[in-house]
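Closing statement on the adenosine-5'-triphosphate sub-project.
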Amino acid sequence: MEPVIGIDLGTTNSVVATVRGNRVEVIPDPQGYRLHPSVVAFVPNGDILVGHAARARRHVDPANTIYSAKRLIGQSIKNPIVQLTLGTLPYRVEEGPNEQALVVVRGRQYTLPEISAYVLMHLKQCAERHLGSTVTKAVITVPANFTDAQRQATKHAGELAGLKVLRILNEPTAAALAYGFGKALDARLAIYDLGGGTFDVTVLSIRDKIFEVLATGGDSFLGGDDFDRTLVERLAAQLLEQSRIDLRAHLDGWAKLVMGAEQIKCQLSRDEAVAGTIHDLAQGVSGQGVSLDFEITRSEFEAMIAPYVERSLLACDEVLIASGQSPQALTELILVGGSTRTPLVRRRIAEHFRRDPQTRINPDETVAYGAALQGAALTAGASNPAEFYSLLLDVVPRALGIAIAGGYAEAIVEKNTPIPVERQRTFVTSHDNQTLVVIQVCQGESRKFTENAPLGTLTLEGIPARARGEAEIEVVFTVDTDGILHVRARDVKTGLATQARMQVVGAPEKRSGEVPSVNAPAVPRA
Ligand SMILES: Nc1ncnc2c1ncn2[C@@H]1O[C@H](COP(=O)(O)OP(=O)(O)OP(=O)(O)O)[C@@H](O)[C@H]1O
Ligand SMILES: [Mg+2]
């Protein structure tokens, strides 16, 4: 019986779990840590470290220690929010083909799927070591609002790591599976997931073993990293005032300040105020280490992060409306993600949803737990007992549309449509003897095409030469259970297939099939 692993591939931390016997096990690294930092460090001697060993190098060698890759994977480097993110990262990123971001480390370029593949390989190795057997199958989770390109790129990363990706599963849906497993429930849940880099909110109903997503939404650039950044900016301004040193010019010092800020933030979740010193941030004129003395209260910090928390609540309102549920009609409110430990977040959500959140769930592990259960469900009857069977009905997170005349977008698949889904559109040629049609595709709900996120270009080729308006091509758009778009086309008159090529902005160049592998970093011995 070959095991299936469930992987929560996080911006900050990843978690891997599996079903063994009748239980879900969260798999530790050789040191016993159950949270694996999603960090890849390229060491001068050529070694590649992942996890805690890599995280420790973030302030030692920031230019060659890659973190927060999930903020860039499957994104167009031209996306304004990606550009903002790049300004905060200490490693080098360049533009590659298809508007992809490429990470440059020690003179070599890496795609984001390659970077994430190192993290996934590390998790695979931890699992193999823990289980004492080869692992080749996985379910990998992504934020519900991940775009087509982000999903494709994540799946590609799994393949590069030598994993057959049985399913790309939405993180909140995985959390719901973990919550509902083994209980005979008739419930409506809201899942609020605030991690390091992304925010997701999903409303689902559970009846027997059927998990149905009613609506989902969120913000792929909202998370604990933003809390850290506001704190770093305040601390840097304070340092400038105290010591006349502008830390933005000191890469190592800045990285140290970011890590210091994260610690202060976490401490403020426990204590009302934190005071202390961050040592050796830079070198003073006479070579002495420059330190920063700080003191910050929880209420000061809360005022700084309040706009982010309110932004998340706006997304909650939209999702509640789309789901047709009122806060009172919900059975349970579930918090996922490390940033939901922030007292302001807990307080504001409780006020907003008019109920206390469920606290029995481990916010760090629940997504991987659900992914492991889904892995078992997908192989139920084959390698797992039928009791693991469950049916997931997920939805399209954003409308899928095409450009039409006048700068408008026409939706092909509406937001929150259950997947898998298939939709057809017929296109006609506008010139005589036209053999090629190019259609711009976007994701988003705006009527104006440019107000949506560009998804890519659909090219229909080899259309039979006929008078204008005579050639009719029927295009079938399919969104599969991974939330990934596929297109196929045929000539209406002859019924013959027409070549349809979808080039997705920011997606990996190689679609599944030919997969170059990356070398596995070694899992350190215990
Ligand atoms: N006690 C705490 N108080 C506040 N924030 C915390 C606490 N513990 C962890 N965090 C924050 O939680 C975030 C990491 O959460 P998590 O591990 O759920 O994210 P992730 O899964 O890596 O990210 P994502 O889901 O966005 O991809 C970090 O920003 C971390 O600083
Ligand atoms: Mg997460």
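The chain has three domains: 4-222+311-393, 224-303, 400-504. With this model delivered, the sub-project is considered complete and its resources will be redirected to Aim 3.
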